[in-house]
Amino acid sequence: MEVIAIQKSVLNGMKNELEALLELTENATRKYNPIFKGEQWLDNQEVCLMMNITKRTLQTYKDKGLLPYSRLNRKNYYKRSDVQALLDAVHPNNTNNNGFTDE
């Protein structure tokens, strides 16, 4: 085991810098919280697994406007509530809240 001794003033300086960094991070993320409003977002793979469909079928749903999506850094994201609504529309009597069928 290695022990490193530093001056208390240096340790306090590091602590202050870390607290300032934490505050900057919290301030940067706080402005995005209203956008998400507690909504869970899913990527292509998660949607395909949840709906038990292929990527091509997912693309068809997007092309026909059946499943709204948002694009961020060349990646598509879908609101879980939108995916669940489409699942309910496709299989109204056959899905539960987690997206898996009761077959």
TrEMBL record:
Signal peptide: none annotated. Coiled coil: none annotated. It comes from the Bacteria. Pfam families: HTH_17. Residues 41-88 form the Helix-turn-helix domain. PANTHER family: HELIX-TURN-HELIX DOMAIN-CONTAINING PROTEIN, PTHR34585. This is Helix-turn-helix domain-containing protein. It comes from Paenimyroides marinum.
